[in-house]
Structure formats: structure tokens, C-alpha cells
Write a structure and sequence with these properties.
- This protein has a single domain, classed as 3-Layer(aba) Sandwich (Rossmann fold).
- 21% of the residues lie in helices and 38% in strands.
- A 5-stranded antiparallel β-sheet has the order 2-1-3-4-5, covered by helices on one side.
- The longest helix is centred in the N-terminal third of the chain and has 12 residues.
- It is globular.
């Protein structure tokens, strides 16, 4: 299950974390970043070099160096592990899974001296 999404310099989301649970309802005033958070998920899944200028926070658009990043923290929850154990009964194939298994995925756009570097989505250390 996705536990949280962290946005850095993504449009209006300069340094924001969206905590998630089994059911998350996103509400807020116009211009507060609801649609931007959904756009970030789309860019995370299929990033491109062309995106960097369009997605960067306004005050960073003309900076020599700038970084936009989206980080997703995913963790195995108990219900998911129980469901997996029921589907595969062989303990050799499906040993007991640790309850604290977590993964961090990140996509970054970095601009340095006019050159854009795209990195991701990549698996990062969740620890």
C-alpha cells in the first residue's frame, strides 16, 4: 500500500507530503494542489525530459540549478501479506513476510547549467 507521496518543487507543491491510508479523500480550496498531486502521479509513472519546465515551481523556472522530485513510500501492510499467504500455501515459496517491509521509489528532474537530467522512477533505500 502507498503510505505517502512527497513532492519537491512540483508546481505549487514546493515541499509537501501527502500521507495516504486505505481510504484517502483529498479535499481543499481551488488552487490548493489536489489536481497537481494527481498530475504528479502521472508524471512519476511516465516521466519525460520535456516535462521539467512545465512542472517546476514558478520561482525555480529560471534558476541555473533546480531539482523536481516525486518520492513514493510503499509498505507492505498486514492485510496484503495475509492475502498473499492464502493464495500461496507453500511456505518454501511464500515464507512469512516481515511486517515492516517498505520500498521508496523516486523520480527526479535535475537542471544544471541548462542541461536536464532525468532519473527515475528508481528504487531507493527506504531506511
Amino acid at each position: 500500500m502507498i503510505k505517502s507521496i512527497h513532492f519537491k518543487n512540483f508546481k505549487v507543491l514546493r515541499d509537501a507530503t501527502l500521507p495516504l491510508s486505505r481510504f484517502t479523500l483529498i479535499v481543499g480550496a481551488n488552487g490548493s494542489g489536489k489536481s497537481t498531486a494527481m498530475q504528479a502521479l502521472s508524471k512519476f509513472v511516465s516521466p519525460s525530459y520535456a516535462d521539467s519546465y512545465e512542472i517546476i515551481t514558478a520561482d525555480q523556472k529560471h534558476a541555473d540549478t533546480a531539482t523536481v522530485s516525486i518520492t513514493i513510500d510503499w509498505a507492505l501492510d498486514e492485510r496484503a501479506s495475509e492475502s498473499s499467504r492464502k493464495k500461496i500455501q507453500d511456505t518454501i515459496i511464500a515464507p512469512t513476510l516481515p511486517s515492516d517491509l517498505s520500498v521508496r521509489l523516486m523520480t527526479e528532474w535535475k537542471r544544471e547549467n541548462g542541461k536536464i537530467n532525468l532519473d527515475g522512477p528508481k528504487l531507493r533505500n527506504a531506511g
